[in-house]
Amino acid sequence: MRNPPLYFVQPYLKTKKIHPENQETPIEFISDRSIPSSLFYRRNHFPYPKLTSENYRFPITGLVRHPRIFSWNDLKRLPSKTLKVVLECSGNKRSFFEPKTFGEQWEKGAISQGEWRGVPLRTLLEITGIEKEAEEVIVEGYDYGYRSDLDRLYPYARSLPLEKAVHPDTLIAYEYNNEPIPFKHGFPFRLIVPQWYAMASVKWIKQIHITNTAFKGAFQTIDYVYYPSRENDEGAYPVTTMNVNSTIQSPLDMEILNTGRHTIRGIAWTGIGSISNIEVSIYDGETWNKMRIEASPCKSYEWCTWAYEWDVSRKGEYIIKSRAIDSYNRSQPKKPLWNKKGYGYNAEDQVKVLVE
Ligand SMILES: Nc1nc2c(c(=O)[nH]1)N[C@H]1C(S)=C(S)[C@@H](COP(=O)(O)O)O[C@H]1N2
Ligand SMILES: [Mo]
Questions:
Q1: Coil/strand/helix, residue 31
Q2: Is the pLDDT of residue 260 over 70?
Q3: pLDDT > 90: what percent of the chain?
Q4: Which of 28, 84, 131, 330 suits a disulfide with 244, CB 3.0-4.6 Å?
């Protein structure tokens, strides 16, 4: 008798660290197109901030014509938009880099998606007006703490180039899956930046400031920078849009299967355009089968799901791989682009199975 299938057990978050709380989504067990918040991955740099009703408002200051404070009621009165968006931590899959890199050793679950509702940041900037010289929009969260490389308390803050900040789909979100955003995911207001790795989507918005100088914050210039060289900072460039990527959800890595028919299935996503093709190999990347994409056409901002029926009669070990191609003809490389801090891993996904 085989063991009962794992899906009889409720899936739960996989804890990487408790303080601050870093947990990944059990991505292999997700079939919802909108992940319930209880299974949404959690990535925090600092302890959770302490919020009161005082925090249900934030100012927009700097190079604006009419600086002002926006309240919860202001936001609720403005026209809103709901978008289904993938949020992927730029450290997702970091644990697969060889040689190893510093940072949280994420496996495949530092990624989730769901429906965010909010007001385009653009709408707020139309209300305040922006000065001609404006170049960057700095968004600061309420959380702060110590970093080992700086000797003072430091807030979580990030900047966006003005062009991305005024993109009509860059949102000041206040709902996730039709509920107020859960506290751990940024209540009451969170920035949502579709197509960028999720470090850009600042939680617990405290203030927004417009400048004409390049923001030098630690989460802008020390972290979330690709350092392709091990020895020095040569060739460094900032982490922005998500790479094209895919993850096999079934079978599980190291699963033991019987001969017969099995469904190989998973998800695929990208940070520009949309997924145009997904291929699967059951012979360790030697030959590839093109796949019918289930949810075709794949939409921008979301992941698509894919499936392939595999008939296997020969017993033995198999390495199953998936690779996605996007509408800009980007595809997953055989080897990841190694970088010192381990961001943007997107090599062909793989699982190993034994058929007996
Ligand atoms: N204020 C604040 N915003 C933040 C962070 C943070 O630590 N503080 N972490 C960022 C990173 S690196 C990621 S991957 C996502 C994680 O969002 P989640 O915890 O809702 O999954 O939030 C981003 N926004
Ligand atoms: Mo992240």
A1: coil
A2: yes
A3: 90
A4: 330
Q: Which atom of ligand 1 has the smallest separation from the CA of 186? A: 20
User: Per-domain residue ranges for the chain?
Assistant: 14-223, 245-355
- 264, 320 Cβ separation under 8 angstroms: yes
| Dist CA 172 CA 191 (whole Å) | 5
Q: Positive or negative, the Cα torsion across 317, 303, 91, 279?
A: positive
Lookup: tokens for 53: 């009703």
Which CATH architecture describes the domain 14-223? Answer: Alpha-Beta Complex (3.90)
Pocket test for ligand 1, best of 13, 16, 27, 43 (most atoms within 8 A of CB): 43
Neighbours of ion ligand 2 (CB under 5 A): 43, 89, 199
Distance from Cα 354 to the centre of ligand 2, integer Å: 33
Structural contact between residues 103 and 341, judged by C-beta atoms closer than 8 angstroms = yes
What does the pLDDT look like over 38-86, one tens digit per residue? Answer: 999 999 999 999 999 999 999 999 999 999 999 999 999 999 999 999 9
